[in-house]
Amino acid sequence: MLSSHDSDIETDVAASRPRFLQIADDIRGQIARKELKEHDILPSERSLSEQYGVSRMTARRALEALETEGLVYSSDRRGRFVSPQRLSYNVSNMVSFVSNAQASNIDLRIEVIDTVETAMDAKLAARLGQPEGCSVTAYTRLFHTGDHPIFIETEYLVADRFPGFLRHDLRQSTTQILETHYQTSAATGDIVIRMRGVQAQEAQLLGISASHTVIELEQVIRDADGVPFCFGRQVWRGEMAEFSAHAIVTRR
Amino acid sequence: MLSSHDSDIETDVAASRPRFLQIADDIRGQIARKELKEHDILPSERSLSEQYGVSRMTARRALEALETEGLVYSSDRRGRFVSPQRLSYNVSNMVSFVSNAQASNIDLRIEVIDTVETAMDAKLAARLGQPEGCSVTAYTRLFHTGDHPIFIETEYLVADRFPGFLRHDLRQSTTQILETHYQTSAATGDIVIRMRGVQAQEAQLLGISASHTVIELEQVIRDADGVPFCFGRQVWRGEMAEFSAHAIVTRR
DNA sequence: CCCGCCATCTGGTATATACCAGAATTCATT
DNA sequence: AATGAATTCTGGTATATACCAGATGGCGGG
Q1: What average pLDDT does chain B have?
Q2: First CA to last CA distance, chain A
Q3: If DSSP codes are grouped into helix, strand and coil, which group holds residue B219?
Q4: Which residue stretches of B82-216 are H helix?
Q5: Looking at A86-224, which runs of residues are DSSP E strands?
Q6: How many other CB atoms are found less than 10 A from the CB of residue A161?
Q7: Would strands B241-248 and B87-90 be described as parallel, antiparallel, or unpaired?
Q8: CB count, 10 Å around CB of B233?
Q9: Given this model, what pLDDT does residue A205 score?
Q10: Residue nearest to nucleotide C15 (CA to C1')
């Protein structure tokens, strides 16, 4: 009945749209229609290639397309899975991401990757309004929901101002630590968001393959007097978040 | 002299890091060292494969890696080129992007893709605080620097408030039009930024291949009374921009 | 000098094949 | 029941090959 029409359309589409994108569209549809749900495993490259009668490489391209879109993530040599829903991160409301997440019932786990006490390079010193070579406390943490990595954060604190900072447990909100133990809280911030290629080490921590893109979010945080005391850099799995802000036009 | 050491290191690296990433690293270095400059053409897939003694597919993967990173753009069947520097877009300072760009000597060209006068769907109506089915003026424009596409913008205006809007020349700042002819200017905005996969039509307009990622920026713009009058969606080539914001913590 | 044809270049798609290493599972041995 | 070895699965890398269609540039004819 309609089948002849359908096949006409299909061959038309086939003429224009590459096979691997058609397969990707197909799977995209299954995800949209919830036939495949969050963290469900997708068919393997080999089974897809049989299913659609294409070579493994073509099936692979379809899956890779979904992966770069962020609809799908892959776990090395285990398979590919449907990505979970995005988190929303309000950059204007600079109250701790950790507290926010916990308030919205997100199961957040923080892993401390590295801590150092070192000297500022020129760039960092400029951002923090300090002389070059000045002492800085730095730590890198990896944030997960469930066992799913979301972003890496490295923060640099003016060391003189926060003595013994690294003695605190960093698997909690640092905003909290700063307020409780150092009577310092964020008042304003300058934020930059950009998309860029992931670096090898980051890719490993985030559990994504090299040559993917990530979202980098950098912020300088200032106290009530406008004095910068922290520089932070977050590297997000791009598909895992969206960033919201509230802007107020200041006319001068 | 050092060559034996070097080759040791090289084979070590070779053992760990895939060949296609090594080639990508190599080219990335040439770009960083300015041996290849903005809009310079890269070696073709075939010449790269000869140069490094790998198959064309491997050379291709190297170039594709650079492309997804945004370091390189490709123009269908002409070749691959070094991407130009990013633009900086301050989302807090909501004064027209167009005026800003012109002030910073950026050669901006605007192409009007589509204009319509239609009825709001439920989602749009909610964002603009209007009843569903209400009349809306919409237009889609493509922004270039030189002949290089940067982003697509679609804006939706509450039609009743801006009669005859589409009669103006849209190849200029719409902020300007709104201020001059309708005594309306932006006071606050709610902005969302996310990374997502590009859609087929967008890919064509932006001159990128399908299955790449883009940055989507959505904003609701309100007047001095807090009444929303415009919803806009921008779809950026991710490598072409970075977004900055100034945040002020409001404690409640 | 201009126009149109054609060879040659480019990337885009697609197949078939091979081997590797890690993850998961199976199954026999202790 | 616990341990450990073997098998089977997965994606990751890499090669070789083929054909297509758009872009480009040279060349010849008007």
Answers
A1: 90
A2: 68
A3: strand
A4: 97-103, 122-128, 174-182, 200-206
A5: 87-90, 108-119, 135-145, 148-158, 188-197, 213-222
A6: 16
A7: parallel
A8: 15
A9: 92
A10: A55
Question: Nearest-CA residue of chain B relative to A93?
Answer: B249
How confident is the model over A126-176, as pLDDT tens digits?
999 999 999 999 999 999 998 899 999 999 999 999 999 999 999 999 999
Whether residue A213 contacts residue B215, with contact meaning beta carbons closer than 8 Å, is answered with no
What angle separates helix B19-32 from helix B56-69, to the nearest 10 degrees? Answer: 50
* C-alpha to C-alpha distance for B141 and B115, rounded to whole angstroms: 9
Residues composing chain A: 252
CB A147: neighbour CB atoms within 10 A? 8
Closest CA to A194 of A220, A213, A222, A209: A213
Q: Is residue B105 within 8 Å of residue B112, measured between CB atoms? A: no
Backbone angles phi, psi at B237, to 5 degrees: -65, 120
Please report, as a single letter, which amino acid is at residue B119. A
pLDDT score, position A76: 84
Contact between A246 and B93 using a beta-carbon 8 Å cutoff: no
Q: Are A188 and B248 in contact (CB under 8 A)?
A: yes
C-alpha separations of B159 from A164, B64, B129, B162 in Å: 59, 44, 13, 5
B1–chain A nearest CA distance, Å = 30
Q: Which residues touch strand C (CB under 7 A)?
A: A 18-21, 53-58, 61, 76-78; B 42, 44-47, 57, 60, 63, 74, 76-80, 209-210
Number of neighbouring beta carbons within 10 Å of residue B125:
18
Length of chain B in residues, anyone?
252
Instruction: Please give the DSSP secondary-structure letter assigned to residue A104.
Output: T
Taking only Cα atoms into account, the Rg of chain B, rounded to an integer number of angstroms, comes to 23
Q: Are A49 and A88 in contact (CB under 8 A)?
A: no
Integer CA distances (angstroms), A137 to A166, A228, B34, B49, in order? 8, 14, 34, 46
Q: Which amino acid is at A145?
A: T
What pLDDT, in 10s, does the model give residues B231-247? 999 999 999 999 999 88
A8: amino acid identity, one letter: D
Tell whether pTM > 0.85: yes
Residues in chain A where the model's pLDDT stays below 70: 1-15, 94-95, 251-252
Judge contact between A156 and A138, C-beta under 8 A: yes
3-state secondary structure of B131: coil
B250 contact partners, CB below 8 Å, separation of at least 6: A93
Q: Are B209 and B202 in contact (CB under 8 A)?
A: no
Nearest to B247 among A189, A215, A249 (CB): A189
Read off φ and ψ for residue B129, nearest 5 degrees. 65, 35
**b/e sequence B12-37, b meaning 16+ C-beta within 10 Å:** eeeeeeebbbbbbbebbeebeeeebe
Go through A176-194 and write b for each residue having 16 or more CB atoms within 10 A of its CB, e for each that does not: ebbeeeeebbbbbbbbbbb
**Structure confidence at residue B19 (pLDDT):** 96
d(CA B142, CA B153): 6
